[in-house]
Amino acid sequence: MMIIDNIDFSKKIILELGCGTRKRIQGSIGIDAIAYEGVDIVGDVIEVLSRFPEKSVDMVHSHHFLPHLPDLKPLMIELERVLKVGGEMEMIAPHFSSPYFYSDPTHKTFLGLYTFCYFAECSLFSKKVPTYGHDCKFQLTQVDLIFKSPRPFYFRYAIRRFFGFIFNLNSYLKEFYEENLVYLISCYEVKYYFVRRK
Predict the structure, then answer these.
(1) Which of 41, 79, 146, 181 is the most interior residue, by most CB within 10 Å?
(2) How far is Cα 50 from Cα 147, in angstroms, rounded to an integer?
(3) Residue 4 phi, psi dihedral angles, 5° rounding
(4) pLDDT tens-place string over residues 2-49
(5) DSSP code of 176?
(6) pTM summary value
(7) Would you say 173 and 167 are in contact if contact means Cβ atoms under 8 Å apart?
(8) In CATH, which of 3.40.50.720, 3.40.50.150, 3.40.1390.10, 3.30.300.30 is domain 4-145+189-196?
(9) CB atoms within 10 A of CB 75
(10) Between 4 and 144, where is the model more confident?
(11) Closest CA to 87 of 62, 66, 61
C-alpha cells in the first residue's frame, strides 16, 4: 500500500476517490475504504485527504462514490483544501431517479442536477440555490445527465441514449427534464465538472 509521505508531489497528482475494484484513470492514486486489488491507499476518504498537503493535487475523479457518503460538505471542504488553483474535478454519480440507486442499501446521499450548485459557483442554470454561507472555491463548469441502461438491455440503452442527446442540448432542457419529466423517464447518472478557481 502507498504511504502519503512517499508520494512525489513534484509530479502530477490525480486522485480517484472510492475507486473500488478498478481505477479509470491511468497513473491515478486510488483511495477506497476496502483493500481491493489496485487500491493504493486504504482508509476513510476524509481522513486520507486530511493528510495531503494543501494545494497538492492536480485532478480528482470519482465514479459512483458520492452516494455512499452521509454528508457531502466535509468532502467538499477537504477537496477545496487539497486541489491546486486551476485543478479539475470530475464526479459521476447515480441520478436520484435511477431505480438502481435505491437497490443499493449503502447509498445515503441523493444527487441531481443542482446538488453541487450548493457547494460551487454556478451560472449554468436559471434556478438559483443558496450556498448557506459556504465560501465556494469551485466553479461548476458543466453538468450532464446520462441516460443509459446496463447490460443486457441493449435496445433500452439505445432509446435512452437518444433521450440523453435531447435533454443535454442545453441547460433549459436539462432543467425542464428534472422538473417535469424525471418520474416518467428515469436518468441513470449525473456527471459534474469543476475547476478550483481560488
Answers:
(1) 79
(2) 35
(3) -55, -35
(4) 678 778 888 999 999 999 999 999 999 999 999 999 899 999 999 999
(5) H
(6) 0.92
(7) yes
(8) 3.40.50.150
(9) 21
(10) 144
(11) 61
